[in-house]
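Sequence, please.
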């Protein structure tokens, strides 16, 4: 996978891939009219068979009707995924945080264009410009906070929203508020803490009372850290075609990526969104004016609004959506205002595989009367893993050959200057150097995005296995050659 840059933490870190065009349409086949459950089932089952995706849940709505909700495959613990299985939705959570803030704006408890500090005095940064950050700028990611000024993922992680705000006291801004767009999870965490203070309720309790409860989202909640993920929301990586159930790396996600929900619950959410604030049964959770406000881009970044991404499909239809990535799970949501469709997908594989993205793109194609692109016959991830397995085998063969010749290598250099032997050994330090600095290297490739060694390992598992193996093999080879060289130099001269 090309480094487009990752979510490097539990908090999730991707706006919406659905703001880009849908995939190409297959040339052959009859184009279906809209989405029907049988077509969804056929595509998802074929996709799972082709890619090895362990589990996925799908919700499709149109207007105020549920078209299809279903689960496929199994969770990391082996239980079946159903329409009611709670799964991680990662950065889709930002849309929920935005809604909570807008509810308080309607009540007069928060001002969208007032400084955050007016309602949240604990929001203090080392940079005096932070006093000018508005609530709107938190939601549309134009506050000036960014990874290069505050490495939110590689720093020690907070355990609560209060701690997430408190750790900003020594932080600075990367830009003046309102002048630059930078996707930064801390923005949404500060906004969620604002909800707590303005409402007098814990964020999870606020969502339960004002969003989940009224909409009948019985399997939904929001959590603080990866330790709070229910077993059904834990995910996988792939290695050589096998799905490996692995724990999500440490991270904080409440407000920015902490919501856990099910396909059936997400259908209720999509109906409310397409109903401009009115959910199933006529319950209104937010005004139509606030819904329109949440979908209005900032002017700094035309494709991002208040917790939502704005884009178009391949056919030019407008979309409102958001993507969500954990390192072991992904999710997508997209609204098609012209046709009234709403789509949500949750997959229990990490961002390296983009499974929820691919399934959602296929459903968007169906909604527009197109035949979705067929799943790949060979998974790109499997091709990469096979290539790295071959590289690992070659590395071991070369290392074994070098070890077998170490005594002869040392004998030839016993009488030469030590610096020449050191120069010959120096290239073997390169894998180790790359292994130690890999997080910084990927940060540079991703234009300053913060990450850690563990996050890179989750994103590029087979590559990192090869790199660690190469580092160890080179270290052993160097140590053995140095040992033989020392003994050769100490040996008495012949005669």
């Amino acid at each position: 996978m090309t480094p487009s840059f990752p979510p490097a933490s539990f908090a999730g870190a991707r706006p919406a891939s659905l703001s880009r065009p849908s995939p190409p349409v297959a040339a052959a086949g009859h184009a279906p009219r809209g989405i029907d459950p049988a077509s969804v089932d056929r595509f998802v089952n074929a996709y799972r068979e082709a890619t090895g995706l362990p589990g996925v849940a799908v919700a499709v709505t149109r207007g105020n009707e549920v078209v299809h909700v279903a689960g496929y495959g199994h969770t990391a613990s082996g239980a079946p995924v159903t329409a009611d299985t709670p799964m991680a939705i990662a950065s889709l959570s930002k849309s929920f945080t935005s809604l909570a803030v807008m509810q308080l704006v309607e009540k007069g408890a928060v001002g969208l264009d007032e400084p955050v500090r007016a309602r949240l005095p604990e929001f203090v940064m080392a940079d005096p410009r932070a006093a000018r950050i508005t609530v709107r700028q938190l939601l549309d990611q134009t506050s000036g906070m960014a990874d290069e000024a505050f490495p939110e993922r590689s720093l020690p992680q907070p355990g609560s929203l209060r701690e997430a705000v408190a750790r900003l006291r020594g932080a600075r801004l990367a830009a003046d508020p309102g002048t630059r767009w930078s996707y930064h999870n801390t923005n949404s965490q500060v906004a969620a803490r604002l909800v707590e203070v303005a409402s007098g309720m814990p964020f999870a309790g606020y969502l339960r009372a004002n969003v989940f409860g009224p909409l009948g989202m019985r399997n939904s909640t929001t959590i603080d850290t990866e330790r709070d993920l229910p077993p059904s929301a834990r995910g996988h990586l792939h290695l050589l075609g096998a799905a490996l159930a692995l724990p999500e790396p440490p991270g904080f996600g409440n407000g920015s990526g902490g919501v856990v929900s099910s396909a059936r619950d997400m259908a209720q959410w999509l109906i409310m969104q397409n109903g401009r604030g009115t959910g199933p049964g006529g319950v209104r959770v937010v005004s139509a004016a606030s819904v329109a406000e949440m979908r209005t881009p900032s002017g700094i970044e035309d494709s991002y609004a208040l917790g939502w991404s704005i884009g178009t499909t391949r056919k030019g239809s407008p979309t409102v959506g958001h993507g969500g990535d954990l390192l072991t799970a992904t999710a997508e949501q997209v609204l098609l205002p012209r046709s009234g469709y709403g789509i949500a997908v949750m997959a229990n594989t990490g961002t390296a595989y983009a499974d929820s993205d691919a399934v959602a793109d296929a459903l968007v194609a169906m909604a527009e009367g197109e035949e979705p692109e067929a799943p790949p016959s060979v998974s790109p991830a499997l091709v990469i893993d096979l290539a790295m397995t071959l590289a690992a085998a070659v590395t071991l063969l070369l290392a074994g050959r070098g070890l077998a010749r170490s005594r002869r290598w040392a004998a030839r250099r016993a009488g030469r200057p030590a610096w020449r032997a050191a120069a010959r050994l120096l290239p073997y330090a390169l894998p180790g150097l790359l292994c130690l600095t890999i997080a910084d290297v990927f940060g540079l490739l991703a234009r300053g995005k913060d990450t850690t060694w563990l996050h890179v390992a989750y994103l590029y598992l087979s590559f990192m296995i090869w790199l660690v193996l190469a580092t160890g093999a080179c270290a052993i080879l160097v140590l053995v050659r140095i040992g033989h060289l020392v003994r050769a130099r100490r040996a008495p001269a012949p005669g």
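Residues 17-367 form a domain with the Beta-lactamase fold (CATH 3.40.710.10).
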